[in-house]
Amino acid sequence: MSRLHILPSAISSRRQAVPSHRPTLFIAVGAGMVFYFQYEKKRLERKRIVEMSKGYGKPKVGGPFTLKDVDGNEFTEKELLGKYSLIYFGFSHCPDICPDELDKMGDALDILQEKAPNSVRPIFISCDPNRDTPDVLKAYLAEFHPSITGLVGTWQQTKDVCKQYRVYFSTPPELTPGEEDYLVDHSIYFYVMDPEGDFVECIGRQDTPESAAGIVLQHIKDWRREKKPVDTTPLPYLQKKQAVATVPQ
Q1: What is the pTM of this model?
Q2: I want to staple 61 with a disulfide (CB 3.0 to 4.6 A). Which of 160, 174, 199, 233 is the partner?
Q3: Which residues bind Cu cation (predicted)?
Q4: Taking the alpha carbons of 188, 192, 196, 198 in that order, is the dihedral positive or negative?
């Protein structure tokens, strides 16, 4: 009986001829696990900070307030519910900081509208009630982005809302002749509030429009990951645009 003899060199050649994808697969799986754990670590850290920000019994940032929008409608903290809110405190006579920050807000809002349509409500609260009348504020904000809702109040209402958001407030309660030209010291942050009205994070001057939008998008992603709803009803300025577009010519 003849026997089939296979030389060791032939076995080696045959093994080499069959490509193995196992190392590549292991690398891909390992990279995916590293990415997942890094994401989860960051997500849990964001969640921990959010929980800490809520405080015990009373929120550390945010709370009840009553103001009016530039059209004279009453606006309270309840109007913030449903969507994420991006809140900025400033004043129309601000020479440079407010315009720069509002430009940044506008660019960030365009990114957010593209990535998470109608999920974010931008708010500008005036901390200069003596000079920022509704008409003044309406004209001022129109230069930056149509989605920004401007809010004004009496001196006491403004002081109260600044206290709720831990905003430094230095505006004089009354103006005397010759004192109309003054500056207002105020905090320079975007306050990010979740759809339940809880504070989640501050966005500072060091952030770019891209990083600011990225921060908000991460919170939206975390929120939806927990199966929580976000109101995506079109913002008022888009509703107006849609209404105009549907009017027969």
Answers
A1: 0.75
A2: 199
A3: 94, 98, 186
A4: negative
